[in-house]
């Protein structure tokens, strides 16, 4: 199916690095440390994490399209969560945000079969990374999870000032990796940023769909386990 491919471009968060699991662990730890149970009247962090996750996804979608900037994303994801939980957002302690940013990228939970699959693919292809994440966090995730060695080039949107799905970030990544569009393949979890972004650029893509959500009709290739790449490629 992909016999002509030579260069594989991966997304990081939600594709290789298990963002939800790592974020949830961090938020659970900080919820109690900062006594959010007393503020909310809820001894568990479940509602806080669920509300935060929804807001974080929404705001990252806006960030992808340059509708908000980094400081606004960082501020609103917790302020909006407090508001929705009926807590005065002015009570949010910003040390929480700083500690979250310091701790979360040090977590090392990856999706199943990540190292096994990347090791397999590295022997056959040149691997690259394209991330919309923040530079410092990306670098710490890659280092702490022992992922850096797999990738020949790493393109971070914050560094070049262009986010996926803008086709210019894919063009920049291919140029940096000395790769050809028709011999390249994008693998990512975000239909808008990763898959359709690559398709609009004219590059084939595989949708990583670990939750096995319904796959839209315009998405020809989807997997729910990274190990499937060892069969497809």
UniProtKB/TrEMBL annotation:
EC number: 3.1.3.5
Any one GO molecular function term: 5'-nucleotidase activity
Keywords per UniProt: Hydrolase
Pfam families linked: HAD_2
UniProt name for this protein: YjjG family noncanonical pyrimidine nucleotidase
Taxonomic source organism: Sphingobacterium corticis
Classification lineage: Bacteria, Pseudomonadati, Bacteroidota, Sphingobacteriia, Sphingobacteriales
